[in-house]
Amino acid sequence: MHVCRRWRRLVFGSPRCLGLQLYCTLETLARNTLDVWPALPLIIHGCFRYDYTTFTSGTDELTAALGQSNRICGVNLSDLADCQLEKVLALMEVPFPELTVLRLSAGGRPIIVPDSFLGGSATRLQYFDLYGIPFPGLPNLLSSATHLVHLNLTFIPHSGYISPEAIVALLSVLSSLRTLSLDFRSPKSRPDRESQSLLPPKHTLLPTLESLEFGGVPEYLEELVTCVDTPRLFKMDITLHNQIDFDCPQLVQFINRTPTLTRALDEAHVVFFYCTANLKFQSRKYGIADLRIKITSLEPDWQLFSIEQVCSSSLLPISSVEDLYIESHSSYKDWKNDATEGTLWLTVLLQFTAVKNLYISHQIAPAICAPALQELIGARITDVLPSLQNIFVGKFKFDQTGYRTFEENVGQFVAARQLSDHPVAISVWVDD
Questions:
Q1: How far is CA 398 from CA 73, 302, 392, 395, 403, in A?
Q2: Res. 208: pLDDT tops 80
Q3: pTM of the model
Q4: 19 Rama class: left (phi>0) / alpha (psi -120 to 50) / beta
Q5: For residue 165, how far is the Cα from the chain centroid?
Q6: Where are the beta strands (DSSP E) in 222-340?
Q7: How far is CA 287 from the centre of its chain?
Q8: Which residues are within 8 A (CB) of 423 and not within 5 positions of it... i.e. 6 or more apart?
Q9: Which of 87, 122, 133, 334 could form an SS bridge with 145, CB 3.0 to 4.6 Å?
C-alpha cells in the first residue's frame, strides 16, 4: 500500500479476498482517521487503564468507533468500569449485522445487559465471551446466533442467573457450538427444586461440542448434563464450589456415556493447591482426551475427603489409569497424618487397580507413606495398587524430618512387597 498508487488500488480493490480490517484501539484517533480509510470492517480492541487521560480520551474514541455499527466485526474490551460499561451497552443497543466476535469483561457493580442489546439479534456471531456481566436475556439473543462456535459466560453474578432449562433450550439451536463455558460467581445460583418437572428429561444432542467447562454448584451441573448428549466431547473441566460431599450420579452417567471423553485415559493427577483439590485424567496415547474435576476448599483434610468422594463415585477412567501422580503445593506438616487420613488415602488408592507407576511429590510423600502404606504391611500388602511396579518420589531438599518419616515407612512397605513376590522399585522424581 505504501509503495505506489497501483498497489494501493489493488489492495483496496479486493478487501473481502484479502480479509482487510481496520484495527482500532483506545489510543486510535478514530474520530479523525475513520473517514480517511475505505469503509473496511472494524475491530475494536482495548484494555481500559484507570488513569484520567485514558479514561476520557479512550471513552471518546470508543464512542466514535462504536458509532459505525454496520461495519464492526469484532469487539474485545476488558476491565470496563461501571460508567464505561453503561456507555458501551447504550451504544450497542442497535443491530451489528457484521459482528462475529464479542468479548466484554467488567469487575465493578453488576450492570445488567438490556434485552435490546445488539438490537435483539446476532445472526453472524461466532465467539461470545462475557466476564462478570449479568445478561438474563441471553438465551433470547443467541437463539438467532446459529453460527456460534464459542460461548463463554464467566464469573456470572447471581443477578445474571440463567436456569439450566434455559441453557439447554438455547443449546438445542446452537448446532455449531464447539466450546461452552459456564462459571457462576455465587453459590446461590442454583436451580429451584420445586419448579422441576416430574417428567423424564428430553435429551438434546450437541453434535459438535468438543469442550465443556463449568463452575458452580453440583445441583446445576446435574440438571445440565442430564439433558444433553455430546458424542464428540473430549475435554471437560468442572469446578464445584465448597462441595465436600461429592454426590453427582448424573455427572457420572454423563461421563460414562461419552466414549470420546473416557477413551484411553491412562494417566491421572491428584493435585492439592491452597484452595482447591484437583483430579485430572488424560490420555498419553491420543494426547487430547482430558477430564478435570476441581473442588474448592481451604482445609487439607476436607480436600482429601472430597477427592476420596470423587474416586469412589464409579468414574470409569480410574480403572484404566497406569500412571498416577499425587502432588501438593503445601508442606506435609499441613496434613494431620492420622488414622482418618490414612483410611481416606487407602480408599483413594484402592480405586486405581491398574496403576504401575506412582509419582509422589516430596511435600506429600510422608503424609501418604506414614498413615496409609503402613496399614498395608502384612496380609493386605497387595490389596491396594496390586499392579504397582515403581514409586517415584520427589527429591527432599530441606525438610529432613519429612525425609526420615518417608524413608522409614516406605522402606518397610517395599520390603513387604518384595516378600509377597510383587516387588516395587523406588526412584527419585524431579517433581519441580
A1: 56, 27, 18, 10, 9
A2: yes
A3: 0.85
A4: left
A5: 21
A6: 228-229, 235-240, 267-272, 276-282, 290-296, 323-328
A7: 18
A8: 389, 414, 417
A9: 122
The identity of residue 268, as a single letter, is A
Q: How far apart are CA 12 and CA 7, in angstroms?
A: 8
Backbone dihedral angles phi then psi of residue 103, each to the nearest 5 degrees? -135, 120
Q: What is the pLDDT averaged over residues 52-81?
A: 78
| Cell triple for 92 | 450497542
167 vs 332, higher pLDDT? 167
Output the nine-digit C-alpha cell for 90.
447504550
Least confident range from 112-126, 196-210, 346-360, 413-427: namely 196-210
What's the CATH number for 322-432? 3.30.370
3-class secondary structure, 420:
coil
pLDDT at 301: 75
Is the separation of the CB atoms in 80 and 89 below 8 Å? Answer: no
Closest CA to 187 of 296, 309, 303, 301: 296
Whether the Cβ atoms of residue 429 and residue 392 lie closer than 8 Å to each other: yes
State how far the alpha carbon of 385 is from the alpha carbons of 146, 233, 251, 306, in Å.
49, 30, 26, 20
Q: Is 47 left (phi over 0), alpha (psi -120 to 50) or beta?
A: beta
- Between these two residues, 209 and 67, which has the higher pLDDT value? 209
Residue 181 one-letter amino acid: S
pLDDT of residue 53: 46
Query: b/e string for 250-268 if b means 16 or more Cβ within 10 A?
Result: bbbebbeebeebbeebbbb
What angle (nearest 5°) sits at the alpha carbon of residue 152, between those of residues 150 and 158?
150
Task: Decide if pLDDT at 55 tops 60.
Answer: no
205 membership: H or E segment, kind and range: strand 204-205
Question: 3-state DSSP call for residue 358?
Answer: strand
Q: 24-61: b or e for each residue (b if 16 or more CB lie within 10 Å)?
A: bebebebeeebeeeeebbbbbbbebeeeeebbeebbeb
Cell 466484554 -> residue: 104
Helix residue ranges, H only, 39-121: 52-66, 82-91
Residue that wins the pLDDT comparison between 338 and 381: 381
The residue extents of the domains of the chain are 15-152, 163-190+202-265+286-311, 322-432
Torsion of CA 370, 371, 375, 381, to 10 degrees: -60
Q: Quote the CA–CA distance of 55 and 26 in Å, as a whole number.
A: 9
Lowest mean pLDDT among 28-32, 157-161, 166-170, 219-223: 28-32
Can you tell me the distance from the alpha carbon of 245 to that of 145, in angstroms, rounded to the nearest whole number?
A: 38
According to DSSP, the residues that pair with 103 across neighbouring strands are 76, 129
